[in-house]
Amino acid sequence: xxxxxxxxxxxxxxxxxxxxxxxxxxxxxxxxxxxxxxxxxxxxxxxxxxxxxxxxxxxxxxxxxxxxxxxxxxxxxxxxxxxxxxxxxxxxxxxxxxxxxxxxxxxxxxxxxxxxxxxxxxxxxxxxxxxxxxxxxxxxxxxxxxxxxxxxxxxxxxxxxxxxxxxxxxx
Length: 171
Prior knowledge:
alpha+beta, 3-methyladenine DNA Glycosylase, Chain A, nine-stranded antiparallel β-sheet
């Protein structure tokens, strides 16, 4: 097992990380002998307090405070009272940026991924380098990566919703 180390999430900028996670392997150990391994095929970047689509755009809150820590941590949050969204904190402390995992092989949509991985609040702050439940393994991608506008963030305004910060592996 060759894990992506935590410094990968600190020493690279968020857009490079969002693009670079395409083709890497997301691993979830359910603790009962079942292990899911799937390539990441779609991500979205959220770039700090100035990004009106980012949870940090309104400053530090109880919900997003993990985004203000050093990168390499899991940021999960619940939407619609049903779906846990999987994000990875990036950058150094006090630079609240993250990458949302939107798609893995055979599972598209961040809500569906949360259900498939059986995520819950206990994953909040999990360290991807040392976790025994969830981590990223290095792998090589041969797919072309396409950048498109992010999805579902119309509330953030024309400038922010049209940033090409969604990355997808071309099929």
